[in-house]
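Onboarding guide, step 5: your first structure request.
Type a short instruction followed by the sequence, for example:

Predict the 3D structure of this protein.
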Amino acid sequence: MNRLPDSAECCSLLADGTILTATATRRPRADRADIKCSGAGSPALAERMLQVLRLARHTEPRFDSRDQVVVSIDRAPGIHERDWELAVVLADRIVRGVWQPSAPALANGWSDTWELGRIGGHAVGGAPQHALLGGPDGLAHLGMLTGQPDQAGAVSSARAWFPLHSGGINDSLCWVEVSVFPLAREAGEEEDAIATPGLDLTQQLAVRQALAGARHFDGRGLGRWRSVVRFGQPRFHGNSFELALVMADRLARGREFLPRGRIIATGCSGAWHAGRVDPVDGREPKCALILQQAVDGDRILLPAAWENELAPGFAQAVRAKGASVACVGRIGII
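The system replies with structure tokens like these:
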């Protein structure tokens, strides 16, 4: 059995003709983060590198979080350059033994859908003949590196909506989308396999804990998925998104029936592992906002604790719009 390398490199051609080198090193995790990035002195670039790597791992069928991978680049690309993304992804794959190039690799490519394993294209011209160039006419998806099919079709995604209420003209329904990819074998820590691009650390923790708890309630929901969670508006406060998040996850994993329209939900829980749904603040304005924006086919889910406190005629007004409403105390087949 070949021993995995302790470090690996992949280069990328920058717009000014110079070469950027992405270096990945592997070491025992020892309770550290599974991925750490250094962006040539730029914290924002390091954050983008981390996001790219977490998403690009999404369609890998195996999950192993025993090692920490540290990825760095030796120079900062231009502010609008993205061709370095593919080099960072490949360095990470080489050091973990996911891909073994036959010669030193130079790669240019970017993607807006790394979680699908697809590569959108490349911007830099004049690359040498041996370079790996991302895009429909070159390396269209990461599976091509090892002769595997495009895995995007195996990614299941679903959305649910929740009310964003702050008492202003920007009040609206916001979507949360969960994309899942099945793992070939049971993963380690559930929260390590959940990527949450665009969220701050507090929100990331809340999302991961809610999903892990709700999947625990499923009995067989843990350790089976890589997951990506996205929000239509990533800047919000409070925990009223939790029930919508859990419902989107259950839809994506085939644990709920699909509604004719949207699932619109608000609620949280202090015990998702028990399947319990708790009330959130702002009942009256949130219900008013939901009623205002509901359309035919929507399925509205509210905490059971609100059932006797809803405004008179709320349920009738929902039905008049062709939507339905249920007050739930537990998750399940709703």
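Each response can be followed by summary notes, for example: The longest helix spans residues 201-218.
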